[in-house]
């Protein structure tokens, strides 16, 4: 059991896995041609050839895909650093939240105008809590309440946002956005309070994303979320078994 605990901590703290994960996400983003997507004059333009991109930018187009690709890489790094119990992960998360919210809004999720600001506040709250030396805490009734309220808020805020700001409102899209946002709300708040089961919430979140990728037959995203799911499951074990990371190890 001691060897298993050491192996789990080594996995979580590994710099090589940071590099592997970031490279995997970058390759998948390029494979999905996210970098060829632009927002121009109120419309999203996909698969814009490189030969047309400079001219499009000069006309005021927003390089949605490039920011999406960069954001995906830093989002992975944020997740990895949070798993290491390094507050840098939360700081990166503050900026990726702004980036992701903007991209989601442009892609039709107009409820992002009210959902992402809440995620921003929770992530900033995590930065403050961790800076004060937050320690991993045992699971209690509040953990279940946080995640339950997160799901309810997910549906409520996405509904309100869609009613106010419009955007896509088909039932499948509404349910997917609501569930994933609700799960992320609970996971982010659990992370801010450093519950030992925080990465159980992220594991469930990644399972939902993986199911969505299977339904879409998106092989690239299937690979990405398998990595995310494995990373979350092993990090869950590390937080439960190995508890807090000493400062020197956390910064390594």
TrEMBL record:
MF terms in GO: nicotinamide riboside transmembrane transporter activity
Name of one Pfam family that matches: NMN_transporter
Transmembrane segments: 16-34, 54-76, 88-107, 113-130, 142-160, 172-192, 225-241
Location(s), subcellular: Membrane
Top-level division of the source organism's lineage: Bacteria
InterPro entries: NMN_transpt_PnuC
Descriptive protein name: Nicotinamide mononucleotide transporter
A cellular-component GO term for this protein: membrane
Organism of provenance: Cloacibacterium normanense
Membrane topology reported for the UniProt record: Multi-pass membrane protein
Keywords of the record: Membrane, Transmembrane, Transmembrane helix
